Amino acid sequence: MNKLLVIILLFVSSLYSQVIVDIEVNGNKLVDKTLITAASGLAVGKELTPSCTRDAIKKLYALGLFSDVAIDTERKGGGAKVIIEVEEYPRVSEIEFIGNKKIKDKKMKEVCGINEGNIASDRQIFNGKVNILKEYRDKGHFLVEVEPKTEMTENGMRIKYFITEKVNLRIREIEIIGNKAFSDEAIEKAMQNREKTWYRKAIFDADKFEKDKESIKQFYAERGFPYAEIENIEFIQLNGNWVKIGITIDEGKKLYFGDISFSGGEVIPNEKLYKYIKFKRDEVYDVKKLHESSQNLYEAYGDLGYLYLQVNREEELNDSIVNITYNIEEGNPARVNYIRVKDNTKTHEKVIRRELTLFPGDILRRSELIRSQRKVYNLGFFSNLTLGTRVASDSGDIDLTFNIEEKQAGQFSVGVGYSAETNFTGNVSISIPNLRGLGELLYIRGDKGGKYSNYELGLREPWLFDTPLSVGSNIFNLEMKKLSFTEKRKGGKIDMMRPIPRLAYTNGYISYNIENVFIQADSSAPQSLIDQAGERWKSAITLGLKRDSRDNFMNPKEGSKNSMSMEISGLGGGVRFQKYILESHIYNRLPLNFATLIRGKFGMLSPKNAPTYERFILGGVGSWGIRGYPDLSIGTLEGGKFSGGRYALLFTVEAKIAFEQNMYPIVFMDMGNTWNNLDEINLHDLKRGVGFGIRMEIPMMGLLGFDFAHGEKGWTPHFQVGVEF
């Protein structure tokens, strides 16, 4: 018996030690023989061993094309013939979905990942089931069953997915167990899954529940309990699809901040570092304030160019007191090595570079980098602007790349507007803000209506002779029928603007305009306006300062815009007055894409006998708009007749949320009024309008807005195109 076993082993060993002289493939119908042979790793001339046979079987199975693979051998000549037997998976002739109502068949085919005409393995069919269940889950449907079945037809394999769409789990109650410091309601407010109320469906979302667990721990960590843990979660089935969720919490000990100290820093003195810390001794421990404090330190050093700063926070626990030490490793400041502008196809590179406030060799200050980005983006020529950085040398110097995505900067609009003052007005406007790719602005505008017409042509060169001197000019022909008089103006203006050295975002400007003014008063006009009727020339110079640090001039969320101007008329001509205007816009970014605007504006006209038609009239929309009132409807009385005021005051508070990048709803309140004398100004006598609206940035058209506001006489609609709000 032992001799027979030895003979068999010697025979097998001699067979597998032979060289492969031939390979035969059987059972394949759809898959090419060459593919099978190549995938197996076996080849004529290669030595046949048990290990390479096992590897060949594994490799063929890994193709996912065969339900069974076997390899046999037989002697042939002085070597071995290999016979590969395969059993192919069938091709899919049809995929059918039965019972699906919430998701259409077309979407089902995309989701399951199996295509008709392809070979489908058992694993692929199972993966299709998993993908379908995931799609339902992503849409909030958890109680769904999917059962795949297959049947063979003349054309191949038909796959049927039987789907049972059950109702979703709904949360009847959330019970918090072990909480002593906070109520169930307070903890539940930190969660996205909430229990049923009259206004909440309370459909359970498993993905959100994973985030809810982290939110609960974060809730505790921001209120003095950084070691709070969730010990257990229990789902209790109630009637139907209702569940009760029990969450057991171990709150741990409540902690407080103790001493705060710094070590290692030299560039910024320790006494100045304390102002960047968001918490104080004896306050309740708060991880959010800790993170904000570290971020403030990084930003403070970043403004000095220390990009490689390391701030390591050490916490020493003494009973319930946590002493904080910030260990600061400053490193060396980074400098700008090279600045590259990329993907600008129309805009000349110098147009972008001249807006930068950072240059090669400069320390890479965070504030200057942000300022440069804002200035380039606020040119208005780009739909997107991203910044790339790369370490350029062993010393840590940085290469900067401004990645530009240009937008169609030209704007053309044709429309019809309406206001109580001007009635229906048709308008045509062409604006080319990046003429020749050099940043020049050319615009032509025409408005025509029953009470209003205006034709204007303007041109602006932003960098005259490649210096930061912006020069603009325009000519216009305006005619407007106001409440008690008709105003006609023909003329032109030229202005110059230049940045103020060492004052970021600040420009000084001077303009001169000359125009022919014709006033035709009717019987309802005040006597002063009737006396000023007729034709005269106005020659005026305006001096001013502007500071604009908004992050986006079309849809700002942070920064400010401030201006002051003084117009002096009477440098020749027959119109003499001085007009002073102060204006400020302050924008604040809030969490969840919210932003607020606070605006204030004050105007003064001097002297007392200044032309009546130059007085301030408020209402409606525009520079002196108060929404909720008709355009140009808020003024004073002179001899019982309507007139403008020599003093004007305007306040606006506005909040918006950006649902999308180019569309956002707003709520607002406008307040303002006019007076003829300084001692008459009364903040309790302001006209008020409150309402809501929407803003949209439309390509080729600019900003489009609609507001609905409530004033003294009810609700008033307002429609605006292409102006700043």
Describe the overall structure.
With 725 residues, this protein is an alpha+beta fold. The chain folds into six domains: 2-88, membrane protein fhac (Ubiquitin-like (UB roll)); 92-165, Ubiquitin-like (UB roll); 170-250, Roll (Ubiquitin-like (UB roll)); 256-329, membrane protein fhac (Ubiquitin-like (UB roll), Roll); 336-406, membrane protein fhac (Ubiquitin-like (UB roll), Roll); 411-721, Porin (Beta Barrel). The chain is 17% helix and 46% strand. It has twelve helices and 33 strands. The strands form seven sheets. Strands 16-17-18-19-20-21-22-23-24-25-26-29-30-31-32-33 form a 16-stranded antiparallel β-sheet, with no helix packed on it. A hairpin with a 3-residue loop joins strand 31 (687-698) and strand 32 (702-711). The longest helix is centred in the first third of the chain and has 17 residues, at 122-138. The model is unreliable at 1-16 and 417-421 (pLDDT under 50). Keywords: Cell outer membrane, Membrane, Repeat, Signal, Transmembrane, Transmembrane beta strand. One of its GO terms (cellular component) is cell outer membrane. Pfam families: Omp85, POTRA.
How many independent structural domains?
6
Helix count equals 12
Percent of residues in helices: 10-25%
Average pLDDT number: 86
Tell me, what is the CATH class of the largest domain?
Mainly Beta
Radius of gyration: 38 Å
Counting copies of identical and different chains, the oligomeric state is: single chain
CATH architecture of the largest domain: Beta Barrel
Q: In whole angstroms, how far apart are the ends?
A: 102 Å
Strand content: over 45%
Order of strands, main sheet, comes to 16-17-18-19-20-21-22-23-24-25-26-29-30-31-32-33
Q: How is the main sheet built?
A: 16 strands, antiparallel
Q: Could you say which structural class the secondary elements and strand pairing correspond to?
A: alpha+beta
Number of strands: 33
How would you name the CATH homologous superfamily of the largest domain? membrane protein fhac: a member of the omp85/tpsb transporter family
GO cellular component, one term: cell outer membrane
Organism: candidate division WOR-3 bacterium JGI_Cruoil_03_44_89
Main location: membrane
Domain POTRA: 18-89, 169-252, 255-331
